[in-house]
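Hey, can you fold this?
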Amino acid sequence: MDTIARVADVVCMNILLTGATGYIGSAIRPALIASGHTVTALVRASGGEGDVVGDMRDKTLVRRLAEKSDAVIHTATPGDETSADADRDFADAVLSGLDGVFVRTGGIWVYGEGEAITEESPIAAPPIVAWREEVNRRVLGASNVRSVLVEPGVVYGRGGGIPRMLSEELIGDGSQHWATVHVDDLADFYALALERAGRGEKFLAVSGVNPTVRELGEAVSRRKGLGGRVVPEEPGRTVGRLGEFGRALLLDQQASGEKGRRVLGWRPRRRSLVAEIEAGGYDGAPVT
């Protein structure tokens, strides 16, 4: 592993980043560079100077890249039926080669429903993410790396993420809360977790703002000139339309994210999702 340089009170690392061209990773990369780190992205197609073209499922490549890195930040996923196996294989390859920091991405959905979800809440994962817990335990329990698990809520901002689906027709009846985080605040969270989190720690990356889907739909309706009028959807129809993804979107979740503020010194600064919608941040966003 290359020598780690220190600038001021920040340890500057050589970081391997997956998902650098994706929604979350594309925000993380500039945040890491701004903090003084050097970033190499593992990309599936042509990337920037110094990036590596390859597949996260190539265990030999991942192990070799991990051996050359001070840290690995993993945000990529195939997003299909191969996701569980791909994530397990990637984690195993990193753990076999890395001598440094491994920041892994999870998600708040694994806790199921709750009015005050914390990192200590019991796991009650819906089927779409039930496979994550086994990999999370393996990574957090590794003795040869400083492993950290970042568990974002519903990510929004820059016109991307799940909120692209919002319209005046609600997802479910709209009574469910979503724990949210702006993508640029989330990028700051990753940089802080990399630098400050202890071994084996996990953090909910949420702003503490937990709007209902009805509130979000009403904001969309007002933006469209419909006066806040919304149409609820029968939950069974949501699941029929969107499958297990829809079942996860129906989860009623609220969280403060207090641990990230207390331990990492993180302070979310961007406007709320409702304010983002009202300011036109999702105007014209296609329904996905």
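Oh, and this one too while you're at it.
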Amino acid sequence: MDFSIIKTGTAGAAALQYFNNRISNAKNMYYQLLPEELVAQAVEMGEGVLSDTGALVIDTGQFTGRSPKDRFIVKDDVTTTTVNWNDFNQPIEEKYFNGLFDKVMHYLEGKKLWVRDCAVCAKE
């Protein structure tokens, strides 16, 4: 995969560098694919089918929704006063995050990864 389209100093470049340093399957990473490319790969891999209108249809099984109470943020000197701690933004100690992160990185070894730079926020 050619990552030369990523601008130096961007969040995307930093994330890819981080992944490249942590896992050995960077050759299996797909970065910022166009929607058409994502749909084609999903169909090719048997993850979904196209409807008669051309829309991608995927059966997610019994796990169809998000889990808002499964959102954890490392509580540190910065986030202590900048995060609205509530039922949805639950604190986690850095040592527990690092343990979970290492477990996820190990799980991802040798697997294909699709990376997308995204941002979400609430307009105030």
